């Protein structure tokens, strides 16, 4: 029951799905248009610094002031942008923190603060979903709309975090975290699907596919695409876990961290 994209569906001011908003609101971001390509370039440029910072912080422990400062930055940005969205332009189908992308930045902030293996593993595995969203964004606003800025800021930070913590700092997943992450994700899907049915929303694209197209189009109609997506994720996440387990690679930062 887990889709491979988790982003915001473009909606009209009345809350119904739309490829673009009405008069006075900027149109949706065209895939691989200028505003999309600029953000992809920013993402690519940020990968190496994130990795090198992780390498530099390897062995510093869960109380590392640098990663905790980054955690504070992610949390402040996420909370501030979410508060603006709720207070200034609330839309029940967009503004609630029910997308996996919302959980991804929250988890990223907590993982940077605690270096908990489970939280870091969630950022690592959910990064696949966030990457899919970055490559094929379903976004109803273009630059310089605050929702555009929030979308990209939080998505890119959510992607750079596992690069820093897993690839750089070597806080690596084990099979235990693999299983727990899958259970947590399935639980999210069940709860959010129930909310979608009650509220008439489509968080996580658990009710229908995004209108703009995504990898879900390859997986058949509803509800088949949910089952196929869950199987694909289970296999992909296993591939993302196996090399670390096989090599015995592990971080050295165990004090206070499960």
Summarize the topology.
Blueprint: H1 34-56, H2 65-89, H3 100-114, H4 117-135, H5 146-168, H6 175-199, H7 224-247
Helix pairs in contact: 1-5, 2-3, 2-5, 3-4, 3-5, 4-5, 4-6, 6-7
Describe the structure.
It is built from seven helices and no strands. By secondary structure, it is an all-alpha fold. The chain has one domain (34-247). The longest helix is centred in the first third of the chain and has 25 residues, at 65-89. It is globular. Mean pLDDT is 82; it is low at 4-8, 10-27 and 252-258.
| Number of separate structural domains | 1
* Sheet/helix structural class: mainly alpha
The average pLDDT is 82
Rg from Cα: 18 Å
Helix content: 55-70%
Percent of sequence in beta strands: under 5%
Gap between N and C termini: 28 Å
The biggest sheet amounts to: none
**Approximate shape:** globular
E-strand count: 0
**Unreliable stretches:** 4-8, 10-27, 252-258
Order of helices and strands: HHHHHHH
Task: Count up the helices.
Answer: 7
Descriptive labels:
258 residues; mainly alpha; 60% helix; disordered C terminus
Short description:
With 258 residues, this protein is mostly helical. The chain has helices spanning 34-56, 65-89, 100-114, 117-135, 146-168, 175-199, 224-247. The protein has 7 helices and no strands.
């Amino acid at each position: 029951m887990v889709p491979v994209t988790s982003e915001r569906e473009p909606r009209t001011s009345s809350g119904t799905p739309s490829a673009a908003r009405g008069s006075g609101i900027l149109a949706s971001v065209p895939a691989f248009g200028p505003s999309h390509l600029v953000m992809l370039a920013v993402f690519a440029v940020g990968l190496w610094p994130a990795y090198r910072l992780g390498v530099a912080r390897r062995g510093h422990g869960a109380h590392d002031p640098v990663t905790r400062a980054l955690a504070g930055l992610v949390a402040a940005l996420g909370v501030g942008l979410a508060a603006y969205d709720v207070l200034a332009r609330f839309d029940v189908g967009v503004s609630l923190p029910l997308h996996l992308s919302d959980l991804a930045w929250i988890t990223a902030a907590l993982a940077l603060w605690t270096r908990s293996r489970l939280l870091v593993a969630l950022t690592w595995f959910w990064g696949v979903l966030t990457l899919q969203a970055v490559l094929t964004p379903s976004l109803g606003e273009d630059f310089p709309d605050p929702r555009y800025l929030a979308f990209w800021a939080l998505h890119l930070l959510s992607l750079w975090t596992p690069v820093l913590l897993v690839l750089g700092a070597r806080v690596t997943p084990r099979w235990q975290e693999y299983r727990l992450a899958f259970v947590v994700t399935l639980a999210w899907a069940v709860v959010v699907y129930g909310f979608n049915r009650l509220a008439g929303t489509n968080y996580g694209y658990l009710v229908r596919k995004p209108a703009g197209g995504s990898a879900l189009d390859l997986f058949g109609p509803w509800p088949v695409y949910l089952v196929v997506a869950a199987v694909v994720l289970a296999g992909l996440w296993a591939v993302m876990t196996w090399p670390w387990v096989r090599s015995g690679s592990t971080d050295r930062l165990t004090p206070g961290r499960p």
